Amino acid sequence: MIPTPMLATLEVASGSLAGSLSSYLVISGILFLLGLATILTRRNVLYVLMGTELILNAANINFVAFSRFGDYGMDGQMMTLVVIMLAAAEAAVALAIVLRIFHDFGTIDITRTDSLRN
Amino acid sequence: MEGFLNSTAHLWLGLGLFVVPFIAAVILIFFGRKLPRGGDWIAQAAIVTCAAAAVFQFIAVITHHGDPHWSWSSAEHGLSWHWITLGGADFTVGIFWDNLSVIMAAMVTVVASCIFFFSAGYMHGDRDYPRFFAYLSYFCFAMLGLVVVDNLLFLFIFWELVGVGSYLLIGFYYDQPDPPLASMKAFLVNRIGDVLFLLGLILAYQLFGTLNYHDLFETLASGNFPPASERAFASLSNHSILTLSGILIFCGAISKSAQVPLHTWLPDAMAGPTPVSALIHAATMVAAGVFMVGRMYPYFTPEALQFIAGIGAITALVGATMGLVMWDIKKVLAYSTMSQLGYMMLGLGVGGYIAGLFHLITHAFFKACLFLGSGSVIHAVHSQDMRDMGGLRKKMPVTYWTFLIATLALCGVPAFAGYYSKDQIIANAMAWWTLDLASARFVPILFGAVGAFMTTFYMFRLIFLTFFGQPGDQKRYDHAHESPALMAVPLIILAGFGLLGGGTNNPLPETDTLWFNSVVAHPESAAAAGLHLDVHHEAEHMAHALHSVHYWAIGVSLLSIIAGFVLARRMYLTKATDPAEVSAKFGPMHKIISNKYYFDDAYNQGVVENLKRWTRVCSWWDRTVVDGIVNGMGLLTRFLAFLSGLFDAYVIDGAVNFWRWLVRFLSGCTRLWQSGNATNYLTWTVLGVLALVAALARGN
Q1: What are the E-state strand segments in B162-215?
Q2: Distances (CA, A) of B64 to B54, B60, B244, B406, B519
Q3: CA B522 to CA B525: how far, in whole Å?
Q4: Domains identified in chain A, total number
Q5: Does residue A66 belong to any structural domain of this protein?
Q6: Nearest-CA residue of chain B relative to A112?
Q7: Residues in chain A with pLDDT < 70?
Q8: Are the CB atoms for B190 and B255 separated by under 8 Å?
Q9: Rounded distance, CA B68 to CA B24, Å?
Q10: Which residues from chain A sit within 8 angstroms of residue B672, using beta carbons?
């Protein structure tokens, strides 16, 4: 749902290199920023976790892009698979932590889980 | 006799005599209460063993041997014990036997045996029965040690130990008001004499470098005096310093043998149990002073002997006068003892060495008998006041007869033991007077004769008041009964000695053939030999005069006795003369004597009160000045500590707290970063990364 003027800007940025490395990097950058924004603005832990997933996928896109346009063989693709697997494991652990947080604090609002303050 | 009484036997007899009662005393002190019959049989067995040994020694040495100059000293046989080395001075101690110590040991043990058995009856049922026998045994240990040691230093040590025994036994009834005070008084009064005695010993040691009797007399006789610059009192001549030393040594006997002016403890000492009075304050300990003077006899210069004779004569008279007016039966006997001790000193002082010591031995037996007899009476009527007694003759025949025999012996009635010794004293005093007819040497005869008259008077006064006449207290009289055999038999034995102690009953004996005269030799005066005084002439004169005054002495004694008896009979038996009238006639004199010559008051006012005043001054000094200094130091310390505390609280703690505060402040600042909010951390992380990227970008 990117607004049209913005897409135009992207077109300009990518120039003639549409379908080239830059466009992938732009996409992954946008995705990263969206993930970061989610993490920094959301108070619900579940949204924060989703933001993390976005950032991880932004990284994945970078891996695949550099693998496709670079001279690195299949390394990037392999790394992406590892990251996806790690993300799955991380989600399982993180959700378990969220359950513990809810159990201990009665909430999953990260601004209120501040018992380590000061 | 030398065969079975060899050196080892003499040594072991001497050691055993005082070690055995000591062991008995130790056993009784620790286990007395657990033993059957309070362990009295241990004490009795110990003293009877000693008595058997001493009598055996007596028979072996005196009866069989019979040599008046016999002596045995462990020093001669290399059997002395090395006690202590102080600086360059070696002190050894050993056993010394001569006829005098053998006789003393036999007398002490035999009298003590009688008294130990009497005590078993007298003290029966007492709460502290075992302790009593422990103390008695301890006393015998000290007394026998005093008799058998061979030097003045150990004589002094045992001298003090008998003093402790006396102290313990006078204060035996510690829960009553008087005995503890009396024991303290006895101890303190004796201290005065003992300190002077010790000074005399120190002077003797400085002069001759030894305290062993034999060595001392030998050095003295050789005239080997140290140069005046090397001894104390350099301005005094050898003669004067020897006299001074002798008089100081005699001062020990003044307190121990209750001579004027240190006699005041003896009547008070009657607060102890009566067997104690008999053993310690009549027969043995008080006689130790006389024994010591006898032991040291060769040491005394003629001047010292005159001093001794003077003190003895005064004591003989003063003691007798106080005996006249007492109502307490034991007090009469106490003053009688004092008076008789004065006789002994008088005898020794006038050169009657044998007479004085003979009287010591005979007196021990009959005075012990008199005290035990008074104990028997007190036991029967439960009172010591003669006005509560009377008419007891029929109720207590054994006590009465033994008491009468002992009284006759004490008065010196011919054929009784006291006669042979007392007459010799009077005879010696007379012979001494004949040396210089115009001098004060008449005083001992006068005092002696008047004293003998008074002795008879107060003793028969005692007998008439106690055993004759009407009962003073009917209730007590009805209750009275003769003492059991345990108490009666010792009385009979002691009375037997009073009857036969002279060794003969011939009223006109040849003086030199009396048993004591034939076994004890008059010692040569070492002082005269050392100072090159010519005393042979005097001695010959004395010996000659003794023969001529002998019958005069008997005559004077008899007159005194008869006069005393007649007067006592008139006043207390037939009541022809009212005693109150007589005392009224003597008005002020009677008052002085009744108040015991104000000795006690003088000592209380002059010494005790002044001492108390002085102690109050000392106490004030202590409380204000010494305590003030101490408290001042305390305050100063407190003040300094306060300052130090301030420094600590504000400077040291301030520095510490400053750092604490600083760290806290700084950490407070940094702590603000730690919001605990994950979002914040992430924000900072992102900013940090951006800053890093920016920096890297700029670097490129």
Answers
A1: none
A2: 14, 5, 40, 29, 11
A3: 9
A4: 1
A5: yes
A6: B677
A7: 1-18, 118
A8: yes
A9: 34
A10: 118
Q: Identify the domain containing residue A51 by its residue range.
A: 21-105
Residue A73, phi-psi category: left (phi > 0), alpha (psi -120 to 50), beta (remainder): left
Name the residue in chain B with its Cα closest to that of A111: B677
Nearest-5° Cα angle at B186, B355 to B301: 40
Name the residue in chain A with its Cα closest to that of B680.
A40
CA distance B695 to chain A (A): 20
- For residues B560 and B453, give the distance between their C-alpha atoms in angstroms, rounded to a whole number: 4
- Residue A32: CATH number of its domain: 1.10.287.3510
For residue A40, give the chain B residue with the closest CA: B679
Alpha-carbon distance values, B39 to A38, B36, B44, B50, B128 (Å): 110, 6, 9, 17, 12
Q: Which residue has the tokens 């996928």?
A: A57
The arithmetic mean of pLDDT across residues B92-108, rounded, is 92
**Distance from A95 to chain B by nearest Cα, in Å?**
16
Whether residue A15 is contained in a domain is answered as no
> A with B: how many residue pairs have Cβ under 8 Å apart?
30
Closest residue to B682, CB basis, from A39, A113, A114: A39
B328, burial (CB in 10 Å: exposed 0-12, middle 13-18, buried 19+):
middle
Tell me: pLDDT of B41 over 80.
yes
Q: Which residues of B touch A114 (CB under 8 A)?
A: 675-677
Query: Are B686 and A40 a contacting pair at CB < 8 A?
Result: yes
pLDDT band at B464 (very low <50, low <70, confident <90, very high): very high
- Of how many residues is chain A composed? 118
In a domain, A117, yes or no: no
Tokens standing for residue B109? 């043990």
pTM: 0.77
Residue A101, in any domain of the structure: yes
Flag whether residue A43 sits within 8 Å of chain B, measured between CB atoms: yes
Task: From chain A, pick out residues whose CB is under 8 angstroms from the CB of B674.
Answer: 116-118
Across the interface, do A114 and B676 touch by the CB < 8 Å criterion?
Answer: yes
Query: 3-state DSSP helix/strand/coil percent for chain B, to nearest 5?
Result: 75, 5, 20
**B664 Cβ contact partners less than 8 Å away, ≥ 6 residues apart:** none
Which of chain A's residues have a Cβ under 8 Å away from the Cβ of B678? 48, 110, 113
Distance CA B441, CA B438 (A): 8
- ipTM given for this complex: 0.75
